[in-house]
Amino acid sequence: MQAIKLATVHDLLQRPDERVELINGEIVHRTLPRPEHGWIQGTARAELDAFTCRSGPDGWWIITEASVAYEPHQCPTHDLAGWRRSRLPRLPEGPIELPPDWVCEIVSPGHGRKDTRDIPLLLQRHGVPFYWLIWPEERRLVAHRRDGDSYQVVATLDHTQPARIPPFDAIILDLGYILVGEPAVREKGPGSSGS
């Protein structure tokens, strides 16, 4: 019986293709994002911009396509990940070796197992406090908070209303805009009809 050789972060970095990641010792190709995936990733990042503009202990680095080297055989690329600047004062070159404070995965067809099982288990082992999952087709966001050694669901939301979601609950996120491209609650402007 021949032993299976697990790929390492070093092996990953030798690959010329940037659309790969290292999951459980296997270098896997990431799917080509669909338009709704790109929209959600961009609008979620934009909605959280207030946190990236802050310097000092309250500021965040919020990065799209963030490669994190958690272990020698684990270097996923998260759709969105955030680090408090108090923990990560400067962005390093290459994969980040410090676990993030928050991760958000946009579940892609064919990657549901990775996003809903493999990644949460990895994040739990490394003490990542917050993990969000977004299902574009269902227009749904599920937010998790680490409680002890496991994640607990703190919010299950859809696109129909704005919400405050930890760890970014200092602001109201417009989930309609993020998930669908339409504001969740339209305000009546001057000259609009209605009683």
TrEMBL record:
Organism: Thiohalocapsa halophila
InterPro entries according to UniProt: Nuclease_put_TT1808 (IPR012296), Restrct_endonuc-II-like (IPR011335), Uma2 (IPR008538)
Domain Putative restriction endonuclease: 10-166
This protein's name: Putative restriction endonuclease domain-containing protein
Top-level taxon: Bacteria
Entry-linked CDD domains: DUF820-like
